[in-house]
Design brief:
Blueprint (H helix, E strand, L loop, with lengths): L6 H7 L6 H7 L3 H6 L8 H22 L5 H12 L1 H10 L10 H5 L6 H36 L3 H4 L2 H12 L5 E8 L6 E8 L2 E7 L2 H16 L2
Antiparallel strand pairs: 1-2, 2-3
Helix pairs in contact: 2-8, 4-5, 4-8, 6-8, 10-11
């Protein structure tokens, strides 16, 4: 059996890989592979798989633990858990950045703690565990190393504008734009209607302040777009 190049990390995540090449790939940033032609692979394909596995496991566990929650609430919870900020936080708790294999330029520019790199690497790691040990192993890894770390993610749930902006960036869309379409009522009881535009989609929210209306519009967008 091939010896692990990351024995300390395997101990930390409480999972020992049978196929060590999967762990190596999950911890290999594309910049490292570009600079080291002998590197067999990087973590992009595993990140693609891990993103799908994350969505499946998050939905399954949230359904199980919140039997009375409506679809909208479950969607918000799932969005919070799968947001880049939340995943990067879980990755930092695991010390994942310390073990990332980065190209010299990426390492010098702080790539070991860059949110996008940590998010991708954590998803790649989950994808690697899925391939190495199957559903049971992946779920156990997810619950121990991701879900438990993010159970107190309420601040993220209360930030639909942040979730929406992060989603737009991930999809390659322009930054969401907010526009007041209507303001009515006396000064002591103003009512605002705000429209947020994301790519070709538009959603409206109302509130007693512009800020509240923007938040409500963003929440509608998140519930509709972020799955």
């Amino acid at each position: 059996m091939k010896r692990s190049k990351f024995p300390g990390f395997e101990k930390r995540i409480k999972y020992r890989f049978k196929k060590k090449t999967l762990l190596e790939a999950a911890l290999t940033h594309p910049s490292y592979r570009y600079e080291m032609p002998d590197a067999e692979s990087d973590n992009q394909r595993l990140e693609f798989l891990g993103d799908a596995v994350l969505g499946l496991l998050a939905a399954d566990i949230l359904m199980e633990r919140n039997p009375q929650a409506a679809e909208g609430e479950l969607t918000k919870l799932k969005s919070a858990i799968s947001s880049g900020t939340a995943l990067a936080s879980a990755a930092r708790a695991l010390g994942l950045g310390e073990h990332l294999r980065l190209g010299k330029g990426e390492a010098a520019s702080g790539g070991a703690d860059r949110e996008s790199n940590l998010e991708d690497a954590l998803e790649a790691l989950l994808g690697a565990v899925w391939l190495d040990g199957g559903l049971k192993a992946a779920r156990k890894f997810f619950e121990r190393n991701i879900f438990q770390c993010l159970e107190n993610a309420e601040p993220v749930l209360n930030n639909p504008k942040g979730i929406l902006q992060e989603y737009a960036q991930k999809k390659g869309y322009a930054v969401p734009e907010y526009k007041v379409t209507e303001a009515s009522g006396p000064d002591h009881a103003r009512r605002y209607c705000v429209e947020v535009t994301v790519s070709t989609y538009a959603y409206r929210g109302e509130g007693t302040s512009r800020r509240e209306a923007e938040k409500n519009a963003a929440e509608k967008a998140v519930l509709s777009m972020v799955k």
